[in-house]
Amino acid sequence: MLSVKGLRKSFKNVVAVNGVSFDVGENETVVLLGPNGSGKTTTLKSIVGLVIPDEGEIYVNGINVRVNPKEARGYLSFLPQRISLYENLKVVEILEFFRKLRNLPIQRVEYVIEMLNLRDILGKYARELSGGNIQRLGIAIALMPDVPILILDEPTLSLDPEGVMRFKSLLSSLKKEGKTILFTTHLLNEVDELADKVGILVSGKLITFESASELKRKLKFESKIYLIVKNMKDEFVDLAYNFGAMEVKRNGTSMIVRADSSKILDIIFNLKENGAQIENFQTSSQSFESIYQKLVEEHESRN
After folding, report:
1. 226: Cβ contacts below 8 Å, ≥ 6 apart
2. Tens digit of pLDDT for each residue in 13-68?
3. Quick check: 204 and 18 in contact, CB under 8 A?
4. pLDDT number for residue 287
5. Domains of the chain by range and CATH?
6. Can you tell me which family this protein belongs to (predicted)?
7. What is this structure's pTM?
């Protein structure tokens, strides 16, 4: 369905992507992981034709993107990392604009309104939207064309924990529809339960590309989350343990939770469901960096 072969792209003296090759099969969900500057966005932009590679070939449903870019683009839809919207238009007007731009049937607008639960913001102007709602609208725009391949750059950016859980449910629904999905993230805890295959980019090189279950078997998927809870109390610590935390440290209104990455969102969601007023949260990248270091060391030892 999607094939990238020997992709290389430099910007002046900086090599952004260096010999990246991978395949995405029909109805597969593939995640490209990596820190900022690892080459994720350049790879996606090359696939959708927004960046012209220096070397390599990209095939979308067997069509060479460089030779027949317009035909290849007809099989995919793209969500960029940063979304620019018309601030003086309402959400419903923005959806209608993109529907007409791609000559889509009106039913596709209704489809994305239901899929992304947008009815409560249809009458709002883009300038009034929160970061999370802007991201929901961006995902909706990307889903409007009924195409087989979805390319999503950091789709959970700006989403709160509940929004991320809804995104998981959305991906599951899209997979049942037969969609092929490639998306990027720098957060390890988004990979578990979402991906069939995982690629990890470091300094423009794809240092591993394998099934999510195999990667999970090899590496310990642990994360830390730092929470600020306005109405902090001891029972929230107990709840975190009940929903899978391996370690919880409380200091005043703050709480540090260590858990398997697949449990982090469940813990946050259930804390909120049980009355915790979470004012802020931040995921620690410490375990992700250690995984990078291990994979980089293995990569260097083989080369």
Report:
1. 254, 255, 256, 281, 282, 283, 284
2. 899 999 999 999 999 999 998 878 889 999 999 999 999 999 999 999 999 999 99
3. yes
4. 45
5. 2-217 (3.40.50.300), 222-285 (3.30.70.980)
6. Belongs to the ABC transporter superfamily.
7. 0.74
